[in-house]
Write a structure and sequence with these properties.
Blueprint lengths: L6 E6 L5 H12 L2 E2 L3 E2 L14 E2 L2 H9 L3 E7 L2 E6 H9 L4 E4 L2 H10 L4 E6 L3 H11 L4 H15 L7 E4 L3 H16 L6 H16 L1
Parallel strand pairs: 1-7, 1-8, 2-7, 3-4, 8-9
Antiparallel strand pairs: 3-6, 5-6
Helix pairs in contact: 1-7
Bound molecules: guanosine-5'-monophosphate.
């Protein structure tokens, strides 16, 4: 039987740079990336079907009703959700899939996929986060404040994650996240069949 892919959830405060980290992980290491559905309006340069599937609230509701999402959550003023089919197909095909989602969604995923790796990316402190959010200029002052307030709530939920990675230097952060994923693949619980075969294989030596 083909080994299933690993499900990896990457979350982080808005402005912590997780989008850039995820993009690089896909480009550099070939991870498969789930594209979410959202009711948020596209930002300049964002493309439907590439960055998100942009939906009306009615369309989003429809996806929920037809069990088309593995998880969904409200974040600030909009809804976001993970389309089910892509993730299930990719995992079944043995590919490692990254979900870039917020903390409520991550919690739901861990319940449905207890073997998923939950990774949280953070700045080293809240001051750095504020500077980065204000500096990127894609949100209004009011939206920035809402995102900071949300980050304060999210900070209380970081202990639900398996790994915490500080994004101080971008390249270090990318390679650390990749190493964390590779390390996770070596856990003995994830290699029980191989371990059994290996022990049998070695035990044969004793018999000769
Ligand atoms: P943004 O509006 O900045 O693109 O995303 C806002 C937040 O929604 C981010 O924390 C992002 O990770 C999260 N998000 C994006 N897609 C999903 C999703 O499918 N499900 C959930 N729960 N959160 C998502």
């Amino acid at each position: 039987m083909k080994k299933k892919g690993q499900l990896i959830v990457i979350s982080g405060f808005s402005g912590a740079g997780k989008g850039t980290v995820v993009k690089s992980l896909v480009e550099k290491y070939g991870y498969s990336l789930s594209i979410s559905a959202t009711t948020r309006a596209p930002r300049p340069g964002e493309v439907d079907g590439k960055d998100y599937y942009f939906k009306t609230e009615a369309e989003f509701r429809n996806l929920i009703d037809y069990n088309g999402l593995i998880e969904w959550a409200q974040y600030v003023d909009n809804y976001y959700g993970t389309p089910r089919k892509f993730v299930e197909d990719e995992l079944a095909a043995g590919r490692d899939v990254i979900l870039e989602i917020e903390v409520q969604g991550a919690t739901i995923i861990k319940k449905q996929y207890p073997d998923a790796d939950l990774i949280f990316i953070t700045t080293k402190d809240v001051e750095t986060l504020k500077e980065r959010l204000a500096g990127r200029g894609s949100e209004t002052q009011e939206q920035v404040e809402k995102r900071i307030r949300r980050a304060v709530e999210e900070a209380e939920m970081i202990d639900k994650y398996d790994y915490i990675v500080i994004n101080d230097d971008l390249n270090t952060c990318i390679d650390t996240v990749h190493s964390v994923i590779l390390g996770g693949k070596c856990k003995k619980e994830r290699n029980e069949d191989f371990l059994k075969d290996l022990q049998e294989n070695f035990s044969r030596i004793r018999e000769v």
